[in-house]
Design goal:
- With 175 residues, this protein is α+β, with helices and mostly antiparallel strands.
- Helix content is 27%, strand content 42%.
- The protein has helices spanning 2-18, 20-26, 126-138, 163-173, and strands spanning 30-34, 37-43, 46-52, 56-61, 64-65, 74-80, 85-92, 102-107, 110-117, 120-122, 141-147, 153-159.
- A twelve-stranded antiparallel β-sheet has the order 1-2-3-6-7-10-9-8-11-12-4-5, sandwiched between helices.
- The longest helix has 17 residues, at 2-18.
- InterPro entries: IalB_sf, Invasion_prot_B.
Length: 175
């Protein structure tokens, strides 16, 4: 996992902080909308991504629902040809994850673990990315469960309606 991060993923994740999240707010580089997913494209460096926000969010502490302030919550899959990144699944929960924790991604009953660093989570390998993307293409709902560094358990539910079309659009734009 560490070599994968060192290989550029951390830099790509930081680019999303600057471009993906901001772009979704401003929509100046949104190139398509596919049901519950949007497609964005940047040119320097060339990168394209499909992104969605949760339809439902529940935050709990000690088993009780609590109100918390979180930044943007985004699930995305991106392409960055210059770095040989194809179909990288990434999640940001809008807060720093508990150090050393994993995020559980449940796609219609199939579970995957995402490793965390700061506010970002992603699969351990490109093979895991491919398995997750296949499940998301076939699925209807993705639920991500994580623990914040402050001890809040979060559960974010994403619709997968439009995911396949958005992913294919992002891939086509970054070939």
């Amino acid at each position: 996992m560490i070599s994968r991060i060192a290989g550029g993923l951390a830099g790509v994740a930081m680019a999303f902080v600057a471009s993906g999240a901001l772009a979704q707010e401003e929509s100046d580089n949104q190139v398509a909308a596919k049901t519950d997913w949007s497609v964005f494209e940047d040119s320097d460096p060339k990168e394209c991504w499909a992104v969605s926000s949760p339809k439902k969010t529940v935050n709990t502490r000690d088993g009780r629902v609590v109100s918390v302030r979180r930044g943007e919550i985004l699930l995305m899959a991106f392409y960055r040809p210059e770095a040989d990144v194809t179909g990288q699944v990434t999640f940001t929960g809008g807060y720093p994850f508990d150090e050393g924790s994993t995020v559980n991604l449940d796609v219609d009953g199939t579970d995957f673990d995402l490793f965390t660093e700061g506010e970002w989570a992603w699969p351990a390998s490109s093979d895991d990315d491919a398995k997750i993307i296949a499940a998301m293409k076939a699925g209807t709902k993705a639920t991500l469960t994580a623990m914040s560094s402050r001890g809040t358990k979060t559960e974010d539910e994403f619709s997968l309606l439009g995911f396949t079309a958005a992913l294919e659009e992002a891939e086509k734009r970054c070939q």
